[in-house]
C-alpha cells in the first residue's frame, strides 16, 4: 500500500517539477543542497558550448516544444512576455533564404562545409521583441538562455546568431522570408538561435573573472 501511495504522489508532483512549475523543486533543493560537482543545473551551465557544426537531422518537434516551454517560463518584466517566437525546421525555407545569402556572399558559400546560413543547423528559432517596452530585449535574452540550457541538458546544441537577422532585415531579396515569419506589428526581430544535434565538441573559451567584483 505504501508503495502504491508513493507512485501516486510521484505522478501528481511530477508536473510541478517541469519548466516553470510550482515551488516544489526549490523547496527540495533548499532541503538537500548540492555542490557544483553533483548539481545538474550547474553542470549544464558550465558544460554548455556554442555549437557551429550540426548533424543533418532536425530536432523533433516534441523535444523542441519542451525547449520552447522552458523558454517562455523565463523571468520577464511585469509578466509582459514581450517576445514573439517563430520556429523554422522547414528545409525549403532554410535553403531558400540561404540561396539569397549565397548570392550576396559567394565566398562564404565556397566553403565546402557550408550548408546554410544558420551554422548549418536544421532548426532555427527566431525571437522578436516588443519595441514599445524598453526592457523587452532583456526578457528575450532570458528566454533564449532558458532555451539553450534546456536544449543542452537533452543533448541538443545551439548557437545564438545576430548576423542572419541583420541580413534578413536589410537585404531586399530576403524580404519575402522575413514576411513569412509573420512577426506581429510593433515587434522586431532581435536574434535567432540555431538548434541541432552537435557534430563537434568545442573546448571552453576562457572567461575573465576580473570583471566580477563584490561591492562592500
Structure commentary:
- By secondary structure, this protein is of the alpha+beta class.
- The longest helix has 18 residues, at about 135-155.
- Helix content is about 40%, strand content about 15%.
- The chain has a domain at about 60-195: NADH Oxidase (3-Layer(aba) Sandwich).
- It has helices at about 1-15, 25-30, 40-45, 60-70, 90-105, 105-110, 135-155, 165-170, 175-180, and strands at about 85-90, 125-130, 155-160, 185-195.
- The chain contains nine helices and four strands, in the order ααααβααβαβααβ.
Task: Write a compact overview of the structure shown.
The protein is of the alpha+beta class. It has nine helices and four strands.
List the uncertain runs: 1-18, 20-32
Based on the structure given, which CATH architecture of the domain at 59-196 is correct? 3-Layer(aba) Sandwich
CATH topology of the domain at 59-196: NADH Oxidase
Helix/strand order, N-terminal first? HHHHEHHEHEHHE
CATH class descriptor of the domain at 59-196: Alpha Beta
Mean pLDDT: 87
For the termini, the CA-CA separation is 56 Å
Proportion in helices = 40-55%
Alpha-carbon Rg, integer:
20 Å
Largest sheet properties: 4 strands, antiparallel
Net shape: globular
The number of helical elements comes to 9
Oligomer: single chain
Strand content: 5-15%
Structural class: alpha+beta
Amino acid at each position: 500500500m505504501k508503495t502504491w501511495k508513493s507512485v501516486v504522489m510521484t505522478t501528481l508532483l511530477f508536473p510541478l517539477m517541469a519548466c516553470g512549475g510550482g515551488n516544489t523543486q526549490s523547496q527540495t533543493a533548499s532541503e538537500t543542497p548540492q555542490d557544483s560537482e553533483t548539481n545538474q543545473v550547474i553542470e549544464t551551465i558550465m558544460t554548455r558550448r556554442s555549437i557551429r557544426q550540426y548533424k543533418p537531422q532536425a530536432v523533433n518537434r516534441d523535444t523542441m516544444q519542451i525547449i520552447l516551454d522552458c523558454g517562455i517560463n523565463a523571468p520577464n518584466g511585469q509578466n509582459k512576455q514581450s517576445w514573439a517566437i517563430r520556429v523554422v525546421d522547414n528545409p525549403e525555407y532554410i535553403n531558400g533564404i540561404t540561396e539569397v545569402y549565397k548570392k550576396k556572399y559567394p565566398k562564404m558559400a565556397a566553403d565546402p562545409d557550408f550548408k546554410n546560413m544558420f551554422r548549418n543547423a536544421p532548426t532555427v528559432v527566431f525571437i522578436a521583441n516588443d519595441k514599445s517596452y524598453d526592457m523587452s530585449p532583456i526578457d528575450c535574452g532570458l528566454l533564449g538562455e532558458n532555451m539553450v540550457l534546456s536544449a543542452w541538458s537533452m543533448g541538443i546544441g545551439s548557437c545564438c546568431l545576430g548576423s542572419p537577422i541583420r541580413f534578413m532585415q536589410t537585404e531586399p531579396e530576403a524580404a519575402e522570408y522575413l514576411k513569412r515569419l509573420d512577426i506581429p506589428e510593433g515587434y522586431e526581430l532581435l536574434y535567432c538561435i540555431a538548434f541541432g544535434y552537435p557534430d563537434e565538441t568545442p573546448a571552453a573559451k576562457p572567461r575573465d573573472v576580473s570583471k566580477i567584483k563584490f561591492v562592500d
